[in-house]
Design brief:
The structure is a single chain. The protein folds into 3 domains: 12-145, Triple-stranded beta-helix (Sandwich), CATH 2.60.520; 154-192, no CATH class; 196-308, Sandwich (Immunoglobulin-like), CATH 2.60.40.2460. The chain contains 1 helix and 25 strands. It has one helix at 18-25; strands spanning 32-33, 43-45, 50-53, 58-61, 64-67, 73-76, 86-95, 100-109, 124-134, 142-145, 154-157, 171-174, 180-183, 188-192, 194-199, 207-211, 214-218, 221-225, 228-231, 242-247, 259-265, 269-275, 285-290, 299-302, 304-308. Strand 4 (58-61) and strand 5 (64-67) form a beta hairpin. The two termini are 58 Å apart.
Length: 309
């Protein structure tokens, strides 16, 4: 068979069959309901042995649009006289015998039936909407929602030009920061980020930097490696706090919690450092806040810390 493409003037006078349309349009949109799980359930228990599909629902299946209509759709559920609990599946079904998309109840058994997903020119293609539980001899049913939703979009943007009206599941790649984010309904969560090595040394006359301080941020987690310093400005009495030659950039500061870490001082002595949060009066600074008296030339060896941003 020769190569073919459509629509085109040389293919069936630009006419496209249902089969050709499905092949073309199946990936225009994800299969599923338009919305997200915070919406009212698509399917609920009806009166007696029935389920209701609520009005005003829209979706897409293999490129075919679907609407539930302006009023509730009631679907009958088969009676169960098997002596055991039965599990049925409510599906959205594309039937290629007439190329319609409809909600339907798929009768199961002790185990929930799987959606049928025939490919090709014939058969049906289904996605789940809800699970129905029917007790033996029951005159009513219970429904557990299970809608499949159409996914969101991923867009390139910058950190200042994200979509101002995102939907749950929408994502973006910030070209200026390299961060990948997803909208969770209330904020843009970081899925991936990589700062590389960031030098956070900030020289001060009171301390000589022996080993520089760095941090690396990965996927919203900041990992700090503090350097080592030598006292260069005379004796430092025990009760006196002293700022160290470090400044954490604003993007990597914890928003509201200070952090504490241990340091080691010449003579096998121990001190404590405070890493100040963005909400403090010393944002991004690191101070020696508890220590013995130090003399000029005493060394300060530090450990590290980590937090989320």
């Amino acid at each position: 068979m020769a190569q073919e493409s459509w629509p085109s003037p040389g293919h069936n006078s630009r006419n496209v069959t249902d089969v050709e349309y499905e092949l073309l349009a199946a990936r225009f949109s994800d299969d599923g309901i338009y919305g997200d799980p915070s919406d009212t359930a698509v399917v609920s228990a009806g009166t007696g042995l029935s389920v209701n599909v609520r009005a005003g629902v829209t979706g897409s299946l293999r490129g075919h649009g679907w609407m539930s209509g302006t009023s509730t759709v009631t679907l009958p559920v088969d009676a169960n006289s098997s002596g055991a609990t039965r599990r049925d599946l409510v599906v959205l079904r594309l039937d290629r015998s007439d190329w319609t998309v409809r909600a339907a109840v798929k009768t199961g058994g002790p185990w929930l039936p799987s959606p049928t997903q025939d490919t090709g020119d014939t058969g049906v293609y289904e996605i789940p909407l809800a699970e129905v539980t029917v007790l033996s001899g029951a005159s009513s049913v219970t429904v557990t929602r299970g809608e499949l939703y159409v996914g969101g979009r991923f867009r390139p943007c910058t950190s200042t030009t994200r979509d101002p009206a995102p939907r749950v599941g929408d994502g973006c790649v910030e070209t200026d920061t390299g961060r990948v984010r997803v909208w969770n309904g209330s904020s843009w969560g970081v899925v991936y980020s990589n700062s590389g090595v960031v030098d956070i040394s900030s020289p001060l006359s009171a301390w000589e930097i022996t080993t520089g301080s760095i941090l690396e941020e990965r996927n919203g987690n900041v990992h700090l490696r503090l350097g080592s310093f030598t006292r260069a400005a005379g004796s430092l009495s025990g009760p006196t706090e002293s700022r160290l030659p470090i400044l954490i950039p604003a993007a990597y500061r914890h928003p509201n919690r200070d952090h504490y870490t241990i340091c080691y001082i010449t003579g096998a002595r121990i001190g404590r450092l405070t890493i100040f949060s963005a909400a403090s009066d010393r944002p991004g600074q690191v101070w020696l806040t508890q220590h013995p008296t130090m003399a000029t030339g005493d060394a300060l060896l530090n450990s590290g810390s980590s937090w989320v941003v």
